[in-house]
Amino acid sequence: MNAFPARKQDEEERNTPEVEAAFEAVPEGVCEVISPSTQAIDRGKKMRMYRREGVEYLWFVDPAAQMVEVFRLDNERWSHLDTYEGDIRARLEPFEAIEIDIGAFWAR
Question: I need a surface site. Which of 21, 32, 34, 59 has the fewest CB within 10 A?
Answer without folding.
Answer: 21
